[in-house]
Write a structure and sequence with these properties.
Elements lengths: L2 H6 L2 H13 L4 E5 L5 E5 L7 H4 L2 E2 L5 H4 L2 E4 L1 H22 L11 H13 L5 H98 L1
Parallel strand pairs: 2-4
Antiparallel strand pairs: 1-2, 3-4
Amino acid sequence: MSLQAWLEKEFILKKEFIKQEVEKSGALKVTFTKDNKRFIIPELFDEVEPSKQFHLPVLIPFHEKLGSGMALDESTFSLLKRKFRAFKFQNKNKEEDRIKLQIHISKKTLSQFDKISKDNNLKDTVDCLEYITNKHYTNQQEHKKEIENLKTELQYKEDKIRNLEHDVSSLRKIIKQEENVKNKSRDDLVNYLIRTSINANCKLAEYESLMCAEKTGGFNLVN
């Protein structure tokens, strides 16, 4: 892969990486050509015509995009690629708010990590840990949702039971009222019959008294 092809892949990140290497005096430095054009070259060299000296130059149309000319030797290019991999890894850790963590785990646990990684096409242990964490979180959310659904269902059943209890209570009141009405009607009937019987007895007694009086009076007239 040529230097320019390498730069064009993930260009924004590599441009930031190159800027960092120049600023911290890493593998690269800035020099200027005789016609005062800015050029990035290997730190160990001091050339004023880098595009002729190094056989890995960036073509001129790419200079404006990069903000500078650039030319490297094979050794520096290889070093740059290795350093970029580390830079990319650190940048990813920073973006994803990762921290370095050293732990000791058993061979059995590591073997389980490897199996999980293989079964789920995961790249490394970090991805495996993230997968397990995400799966655990997902399971927790599903469990929480199940609990909420059960609570909702329980609340529905409790409300239904309360409604049934209210209906039963209302029916009991209605039955009680009907029983009271029936009892009152029966009591009224009994009272009516008693009054009628009393009246009838009174009239009968009065009639018998009159009959006795008439009989007694009749005997007196004969004598």
